[in-house]
Amino acid sequence: MKIYTKGGDKGTTSLFGGKRVSKKDLQIEAYGTVDELNAHIGALISEVLKAEPRQELMGFQSILFDVGSHLASDGTADKYLPELKDSLIDNLESRMDEMTAKLPELKSFILPGGNKRVALTHICRTVCRRAERRVVHLSEQNSNDSIAWCVRYLNRLSDYFFVLARYLMLLDGVDEVKWNPK
């Protein structure tokens, strides 16, 4: 099977269900940004050697494919889409609570960085926030339950990446870089 179809040579692409839209369409921008986030998570995984966060991050990659499939749907083939469960959001919250319980109290803003894997975690956080903004924009034009779920999930996932960055700093014995306003 060839990977290229030549269908996009004129600046359009197909949604899941078959409808063709411009590659600059907000729906394409939304799921494309989720795909970008997934690639950054892959880079982060290459720097995380411990089984627990590594497996967790790989699980998020699969969930983001589910999110992307919902965002890429034209609404005609929804019965083929994977289920988006509230328990996935609950699990993110529980995991953040577990890590936060081990962290020092946050008393100031912190700057991204510290070491490579923490910096990559912050990149995941910021790309996740951008994906969230794109999906919020999409939800303003085309609101449905799955898009609303995607907004909530991306919001929690970006929070998770912030907490994970702090947690990795703790595990690595690196001091957080605190913002020193001028």
Our count of helices gives 5
Low-confidence stretches: none
Tally of discrete structural domains? 1
H-E order: EEHHHEHHE
Helix content: 55-70%
The CATH top-level class label: Mainly Alpha
Give the overall form. elongated
Amino- and carboxy-terminal Cα gap: 58 Å
Per CATH, which architecture?
A: Up-down Bundle
| Mean pLDDT level | 93
Count of DSSP strands: 4
**What is the spatial order of strands in the main beta sheet?**
1-2
Main β-sheet description: 2 strands, antiparallel
C-alpha Rg (nearest Å): 18 Å
- What's the CATH superfamily, by name? Cobalamin adenosyltransferase-like
Share of β-strand residues: 5-15%
Write structural notes for this entry.
With 182 residues, this protein is mainly α. The protein has a single domain, classed as Cobalamin adenosyltransferase-like (Hypothetical Protein Ta1238, Chain: A, Up-down Bundle). The protein has five helices and four strands. The protein has helices at 26-45, 51-71, 86-100, 116-141, 145-172; strands at 12-14, 20-22, 110-111, 177-178. Strands 1-2 form a two-stranded antiparallel ribbon. The termini are far apart.
In short:
The chain is mainly α.
Keywords:
182 residues; mainly alpha; Hypothetical Protein Ta1238, Chain: A; two-stranded antiparallel sheet; two-stranded antiparallel ribbon; elongated
SSE arrangement:
Blueprint: E1 12-14, E2 20-22, H1 26-45, H2 51-71, H3 86-100, E3 110-111, H4 116-141, H5 145-172, E4 177-178
Antiparallel strand pairs: 1-2, 3-4
Helix pairs in contact: 1-2, 1-4, 3-5, 4-5
